[in-house]
């Protein structure tokens, strides 16, 4: 299914690319020389990552302290290379090597399929990854570029997402890669609502592509 970005989304991409082209990236020699290999084995049970408020973080290069420092900075900070940020099991952001793609702050976005056997990468990229709700990942995160290094939270400038913390929590607690679900009261209903929202979104997208 072909995804078409709106004029506004392309304008946002071009604007951020122009601004970022003049920015300098401060990186330690170790971070600058590190090369990140990312494949399906890079992603596993979301609950094995480190929780920060309502999302989870990790670092593929082992610098979890640096990632946590950025995530917990009240004034915002640039995340170190190798940082992984996840709100739900099927969507991931990974901080790539400095200068990889400055328009996205070197963040690469991933859309995953997950099951008991592990993860499979459905789509990866910097500006053209679209989630199952039809949202372009880069366009959604771009408003949080300044100060927050593209990380969306309340008050960071991003448009509200169509799901709430109860729904994201239910998805985290039912990640099939983690083994049996550890659902809390209300999670089952939240998951039912999510499935309905996804079905409606897919139907709407199919009709848009058809006509």
From TrEMBL:
<feature type="signal peptide">
    <location>
        <begin position="1"/>
        <end position="26"/>
    </location>
</feature>
<keyword id="KW-0732">Signal</keyword>
<protein>
    <recommendedName>
        <fullName>Cytochrome P460 domain-containing protein</fullName>
    </recommendedName>
</protein>
<dbReference type="InterPro" id="IPR038142">
    <property type="entry name" value="Cytochrome_P460_sp"/>
</dbReference>
